[in-house]
Amino acid sequence: MRVRQGHVILGLLTVAGLFFAPQSLADNGRDILGGGQKTYTTDWEDYDAKPWEEKAAALPPYPKDEDFYSFYVSASTVNRFYVDTANISLGGDGVVRYSLLIISPAGTRNVSYEGMRCESRERRVYALGRTDSRWADARGSIWVPVREATANRHYAALFTDFFCPHGIMPTKLENVTRAIRKEGEPLVKKR
Fold it and tell me: In terms of Cα–Cα distance, which of 125, 176, 128, 129 is closest to 146?
């Protein structure tokens, strides 16, 4: 049997084309081998990225002083910072929700109910505490970046130390509350 040199070269080019040019297998989305079905696409036209959707945040019961535990922010801060360890939640939408208490050196208390999104490193205030121990919806509540800045360093501390270590939301709530209670001090000391 005699093989012509031209046929061998053509055969090698055809085989090489199959290995090095995978888009040559598809002709307008159809299988060139005759199946008539779309087998794959070389671009991302079929990729349907579902946008992130936040779930509605239900307000927790107003926090009790005995459930607040402190957390370290920095040596330069004069305020004291606390998290309500009884009402932290890990949402299915990737948001950690929590109540925050900030006490100034003069004793002024600011309570808020907030969310922190680990994936995007953002935070949001849902509600503010009133003097009659009730929540008031926050006006103009939007997602803002968590930054490593002096003025709002407490958000970065919560993000990196407890709620989103390595940018990932913990899977077990017990681990979060245990870490806060282990590191911090209770607002109200038990007798």
Answer: 125
Buried b (16+ CB within 10 A) or exposed e, 158-190: bbeebbbeeeebbeeeeebbebbeeebeebeee
Residues found in the chain: 191
User: Burial of 102 by CB count in 10 Å (0-12 exposed, 13-18 middle, 19+ buried)?
Assistant: middle
Q: Which amino acid is at 167?
A: G
pTM to 2 decimal places: 0.72
Predicted local confidence at residue 48, as pLDDT: 58
pLDDT in tens, 143-157: 999 998 777 899 999
- 29 backbone φψ class: left, alpha, beta (φ>0; ψ -120 to 50): left
Per-residue tokens: 10: 């053509």
